[in-house]
Please model this.
Amino acid sequence: MTIQSNPAPGNGSPPRREAPGRPPVRGVNAAPVLVKVPPPFSVRFSQFFWIISFTVGAFTLVYFFVIREDLLPLIAERAEKVTAGRGEATYESAADIIFWVVFALMIGVLLVQITLMVSFMSRRPHVRWWQLATLCLQVLLVLLSPEWVALGERGESIPPLLAAQAALVLLALFSSIMPRAIRWTARKHDVRRGPESPAGADF
Model:
């Protein structure tokens, strides 16, 4: 029984060829793929402040409605001081109108802010400017409420509640303009361009 060995190179036999490398399954120039990545900390912090402001706003609305019967005579008395010489029914109607106008404005601002927060989390453009506009309306409410609706002992709690809600909105807006939050909004979509590009590299 004889054992045949492969001839070594240089003895007249052709050299051995290495097997070609296996091509990669995913190329470097692969198409981008949409991925779901958690937002940066500043965006989540802004969302947290918005939710707390909504809670304070809802509590203020409920409290404002509960003390309505106590506020209406005081609002009518304030209206009488501004324009005297009219009937009592006129002042009662004016007080009712003032109350419901302020109440509707508070509800409207709250609902708009909820809608804008959803748009912000969806990375809609220019949302921060609209949120800033709602903050200006809240500041106006804080300044005018002591003159018209925040009257009496029970009404004294309205301005601090409105101010607390506006302060939380200000903190939410401040968190939303941090550099990472700005980049997150400008990017609009999170994509993965290749196997070596981590989805959350910018976070």
Observations:
- The beta strands are 33-34, 191-192.
